[in-house]
Amino acid sequence: MDKSSPSSQTNTEVAKPQVPHNEAIHVLNLYQTADKIYTRSLEGFYRSLRRWTWIPMLASYFLIPWLSINGRQAVWFDLAERKFHIFWLTLWPQDLPFLAALLIISAFGLFTITNFAGRIWCGFSCPQTVWTSIFIAIEEWFEGDRNKRIKLDAQPWSLNKLARKSAVQLCWLLMSLATGLTFVGYFNPIRELVPDLFHLSVSGAALFWLLLFTALTWANAGLMREQICLYVCPYARFQSVMFDSDTLIVSYDKARGEQRGSRKINQDPAQLGLGDCVDCTLCVQVCPTGIDIRDGLQYECISCGLCIDACNAVMEKMDYPAGLISFTTENALEKGIPFRLLRPRLMAYFAVLIVICGVFFYQISSRIALEIDVVRDRSMLYRVTEDGFVENSYKLKINNMDQADHRYSISVKSDQGLIYRGQSEVGVAEGEVAEMLVRLLLPVQDIKKTNAEIVFVVTATTESGLQNSEKSRFIAPLKNRD
Fold first, then answer.
1. Alpha-carbon gap, residue 149 to 288, rounded angstroms
2. How many helices (H) and strands (E) does the chain have?
3. Domain 370-475 falls under CATH 2.60.40.10
4. Domain map of the chain by residue range?
5. For residues 131 and 217, is the Cβ–Cβ distance under 8 A?
6. What does the longest C-alpha to C-alpha distance in the chain come to?
């Protein structure tokens, strides 16, 4: 057979796949850079409401570290001493269950709010939203409104553009520095941290965290912005499981709005075969995540209500009823069922939240700022002295978790005539631990039990009324033992 024949070539060459001429090849770039969102600022009810929700949070964040209580920073997480000072309360490592309970309360609070009104936490109180909005306001201050910012970015670099961009970056940096400095101030006394920073004598650890949080704030609020909400925040991914058909969400009324189209103010949309939506796209231009709410509920929506303000402004101008975009429920839009507050899932979340909060506040209010630890001498169960006494030795630790110095008296309760040997009173400074050796003696002839329960009682001699107790054991030999 001829080696150049077609049959021989099929044995030595790999057949190439044939692409049909009528099919297109699509290339998907998984690392496509997100387009910058230029938001438009329009006044309205929800924009004003957002400002009023931000003021308490921003004021508390920046001002609380500067408050003092009893000569100490009001809120101070002292990691070196392992003490958390929160106003009039001091928490220690053994109080970590309170932190766990607080996290559970926060989680169920978020579940309850989400089931009630969707992602209003994200739209009105989330720090990412608040700081991003502040950074956008700085942009608007130096670069102008939405159209001016778009034109400025499209222009080639000039002295004017450089000056405006530099002013924005400088203000972003100052805001980020204030944010990072305040955050570090919760862990290092801020009244000492600020002077040390200006005198260039701040510690290396404090400087590291200050620079880190300054950079993170600048990147999150200045550069990434909505990308944090869309791709980093896990809440955007699982919040939909807490929704139901009666959850208040930002929704577009398709039955009323379609078909979309432009028209003159005095024209009747019904005669043109149009709905109330004039297709002005203002709802998209004001959205901080750049979505079109008219496409339906999307996980990117943070329920900020800015699209409602924009749409209501247009409806008022066109002399149409407000509420084409509104906070409403799926049942209200599709079935005409009014909003129901009393429903099983919401009531279950609320009930669990009330129970957990009740238990938490009860535990906090009944917490005793005094801890006692009694450790028996493990090298010897007991010792019989030459005087005919049975002796047990203990190491007593008194932890003063209060925010004041106290003097404590020590006593022992027992159904036997135990003799106490050791300090009967001791002074312990706030946040300090006192250790002492204590001996208990019992005449051999008075032995009733070989393993008896005893109680150490420590009571503050001041007017605080602090008192706590700790159980232990008194070990003795058999009464007839030589």
1. 15
2. 16, 16
3. yes
4. 244-334, 370-475
5. yes
6. 121
Q: How confident is the model over 10-60, as pLDDT tens digits?
A: 444 444 555 455 555 555 555 556 788 999 999 999 999 998 989 989 999
Token pair 């000569």 is found at: 71
Q: Which two tokens stand for residue 297?
A: 């509920």
Determine how β-strand 406-413 pairs with β-strand 383-384: unpaired
Taking only Cα atoms into account, the Rg of the chain, rounded to an integer number of angstroms, comes to 35
Task: Compute the half-sphere exposure of residue 140: CA atoms within 13 Å on the CB side of its CA.
Answer: 14
* Residues 114 and 239: beta-carbon distance below 8 Å: yes
Q: Which two tokens stand for residue 134?
A: 């502040």
pLDDT in tens, 362-386: 888 888 888 899 998 888 888 888 8
Question: Measured between alpha carbons, how far is 375 from 397 in angstroms, rounded to an integer?
Answer: 8
pLDDT band at 477 (very low <50, low <70, confident <90, very high): confident
- Angle formed at CA 104 by CA 103 and CA 110, multiple of 5 degrees: 90
Give pLDDT tens digits for 226-272.
889 888 888 877 877 888 889 999 999 999 999 999 999 888 888 88
> DSSP secondary structure string, 405-421?
-EEEEEEEE-SS--EEE
- The structure's pTM equals 0.80
What are the φ and ψ backbone dihedral angles of 216, each rounded to 5 degrees? -65, -40
Q: Which of 230, 320, 307 has its CA nearest to residue 267?
A: 320
What 3-state class would DSSP assign to 143? helix
